[in-house]
Amino acid sequence: MKNKLDIYVVEAAEREIELRPLLLFKGNLTEHRCRSLFAVTRFLRDNEIMKFAQAESFLTPLETERHTAGLHKRVYAGSLLSFFRRMRQCPDVCDMDAGLEDYICEVLENQAGFTKYIRLDPIPATSTDHHTQRAWRLVRTPRAIRKEQERLSEFYPYLPKSLGIEDNLLRTIHEAVSRGLPDDIRADLCQDLVVSVLSGDVSLENVREAIPLHLRTHRRMYADRWRLLSLETPIGDGDMTIGDTL
Q: Do 95 and 193 sit in the same domain of this protein?
């Protein structure tokens, strides 16, 4: 037997990062077992073991060496087959050791039956899934910062302060109506003028001349808004007073 298995185990531990591509396939291969099987692969190569059945028989008596490598159970041919297929799919890993890829290909060719064509399903090198057990695969996505929605203005034309009035109709009327009017009256007046322009009663060029007429109409409509009324004031047909409705 050439060399001891523990020598290969130490070398495999020093190459932990380089062995990570072997873990990028679906399956339950752990990082620790990956290092152990890589050490075993090189150990078998140097001892000229060319078949998996022969490898089983060769490794079984080496209980102490297997425990040192972290393989506390018997190494079966199926485990070696799966690992060799992973190695075959990762030429960069094989290139770390001269002649390792040729050895793996030759061993796989020596296997009888269809089992050498075992299917391997690759997985992405990075993951945003926080349930992954491998921190080196985890890519943390930046948390989206929710932008606070700008509130609308409480006054006409009820647009956010950061936005200008792009519509020519709204802007012309907004600039024409005096800002000295109470806010509620000014808002009603501006909107009445918009309706008048859209209906064709007033042209946009003559908006300023139409303001006094619309203002008088508005005041007549709400003439009683700020006037004190007696509770005896009749309403409707005169059968009832304001006081009767309270």
A: no
